[in-house]
Design brief:
This is 3-oxo-tetronate kinase. Belongs to the four-carbon acid sugar kinase family. It comes from Jannaschia faecimaris. One of its GO terms (molecular function) is ATP binding. InterPro entries: 4-carb_acid_sugar_kinase_N (IPR010737), 4-carb_acid_sugar_kinase_N_sf (IPR037051), NBD_C (IPR031475), NBD_C_sf (IPR042213), OtnK (IPR050007). This protein folds into two domains: about 5-235, Rossmann fold (3-Layer(aba) Sandwich), CATH 3.40.50; about 250-420, Molybdenum Cofactor Biosythetic Enzyme, Chain A. It contains 15 helices and 18 strands. The strands form two sheets. The chain has a 15-stranded mixed sheet, with helices on both faces. It has a three-stranded antiparallel sheet with strand order 6-7-8, with no helix packed on it. It is about 35% helix and about 20% strand. The longest helix is centred in the last third of the chain and has 21 residues, at about 325-345. With about 425 residues, the chain is α/β, with parallel strands linked by helices. Bound molecules: adenosine-5'-diphosphate (ADP) and the ligand O=C(O)[C@@H](O)C(=O)COP(=O)(O)O.
């Protein structure tokens, strides 16, 4: 058995890099694995994050994959387990947040766990059990129009209840503001899935003080940031070594399959300086649709700023979904961007930014990446990541980053920020 201390299971790839970035901020080196590690893969390290792509899978498949990941982490000795899902609680009416949390509790023999999606730095706040995105309740935010997981309620207990077999509960804001001891006492009285309020980073610090010794924590990435310091102070883990980051190849491309409001603004902004090719799922469904995109890419200068995007307004997404079905429209776009990522690599392009969680999963898999090192953060929750073969990948969650995100990302590598990272 090796000495893994922290093991996380992320329900998508952008979520995994987001969590890894938060841990890296706390000064710990993180090993991010794409998919369940195969027999003979590199030895486990102190901080392991396993990126799965199970946010919208059938529940049974998602639970089976998460369970297998947990068993691998347990075999490596993990003493703290983290179920990373989206800070906007992206899920369908039945899953997969609740069923995976339930399955992990059963595997670990637990009668309580906590749910903390709050990420104040990115505008996600939980107050009286209700999740807000910036000023809006979740169900009034752009998440109401998400192509795969439209969110139609903001109350986390109400969202969880149909997804879980255990009871739900809340540790509300007044208790959180009283301090870590009060939160700990409240948790001691509750069972099942306990939602935690948090409005500011200071609340996350308070919560972390109360929950750092819990075996299973569920939520977004932000609650993970204060934990390593507390674990170190409590003597629960040692201080792992940090290795230098690898070299990065030249050439660049942005690939966007996200239709989130922020990505739409970012693509619009980037098109002012980069050349672009727009993918339309209806065209991709016809013969020749994909071939045209590949011909376009092949004609581009590998070094020049460029973007291929399916990013579109909700009305256009709905139209494609009505004609093709939700799953087929999504799969056509994901497969196309995955193929174009492979083509870009064949052209010698070494710097790839991907927008969209599902999209990132499809692209990363197509590139055959199985392990990533975490580099500098471009925006909160979005780090550059490095694969073994000179490939730099940035996987951007739909609503993360400033409007200038794509330019910021590529500029960062140009200006040598990589070598300055701890
Ligand atoms: N124009 C479009 N019409 C229909 N579906 C689309 C379109 N563009 C992208 N999609 C699909 O929408 C989904 C977006 O999800 P994702 O990549 O996770 O983005 P986000 O991070 O914004 O949630 C993907 O499955 C993608 O293939
Ligand atoms: O927690 C978050 O918001 C992100 O880490 C995340 O999971 C976002 O998902 P996508 O927007 O689908 O990339």
């Amino acid at each position: 058995m090796s000495n893994t201390f922290f093991g996380a299971i992320a329900d998508d790839f952008t979520g995994a890099t987001d969590l890894a970035a938060m841990l890296a901020r706390a000064g710990v080196p993180v090993t991010l694995r794409i998919g369940l590690p195969e027999a003979g893969s590199e030895a486990a390290t102190t901080f392991e994050v396993i990126a799965l792509k199970i946010r919208t899978n059938p529940i049974e498949d998602a639970v089976a994959e998460a369970r297998a990941a947990y068993r691998w982490l347990k075999a490596q000795g993990a003493r703290r387990v983290f179920w990373k899902y989206c800070s906007t609680f992206d899920s369908t009416q039945r899953g997969n947040i609740g069923p995976v949390a339930d399955a992990l509790m059963t595997e670990m023999g637990l009668d309580r766990t906590v749910h903390c999606p709050a990420f104040p730095e990115n505008g996600r706040r939980v107050f009286m059990g209700n999740l807000f995105v910036n000023e809006l309740p979740l169900n009034e935010s752009p998440m109401k129009d998400h192509p795969l997981t439209p969110m139609r309620d903001a109350n986390l207990e109400r969202l969880l209840r149909p997804q879980v077999q255990r009871q739900t509960a809340l540790v509300a804001f007044p208790t959180v503001r009283t301090g870590s001891d009060a939160v700990r006492e409240a948790l001691g009285r509750l069972q099942g899935h306990i939602v935690l309020d948090a409005v500011e980073d200071a609340d996350l610090q308070t919560l972390a003080g109360a929950i750092h010794d819990m075996p299973l924590i569920c939520g977004g990435s932000a609650i993970a940031q204060p934990l390593p310091v507390l674990w170190r102070e409590a003597g629960a883990m040692g201080v792992p070594d940090i290795a230098p980051l690898p070299d990065v190849g030249d050439g660049q491309i942005a690939l966007s399959g996200s239709c989130s409001a922020m990505t739409r603004a970012q693509v619009g902004h980037y098109l002012k300086t980069a050349v672009g090719y727009r993918l339309d799922p209806l065209e991709l469904a016809e013969s020749g649709g994909m071939a045209a995109a590949r011909v376009w890419l092949k004609a581009q200068d590998p070094l020049a700023p460029k973007i291929v995007y399916a990013t579109a307004e909700p009305s256009s997404v709905t139209l494609a979904q009505e004609k093709l079905g939700v799953a087929r429209a999504g799969a056509l776009v994901e497969d196309a961007l995955a193929q174009l990522a492979q083509d870009a690599r064949a052209m010698g392009i070494g710097r790839v930014v991907v927008a969209g969680g599902e999209t990132s999963g499809a692209v990363t898999r197509a590139l055959g990446v199985d392990r990533l090192r975490i580099g500098p953060e471009i925006a909160p929750g979005v780090p550059w990541c490095f694969a073994a073969d000179g490939l730099a990948l940035a996987l951007k969650s739909g609503n993360f980053g400033a409007e200038t995100f794509f330019t910021d990302a590529f500029n960062m590598l140009e200006h040598g920020a990589v070598s300055s990272v701890a």
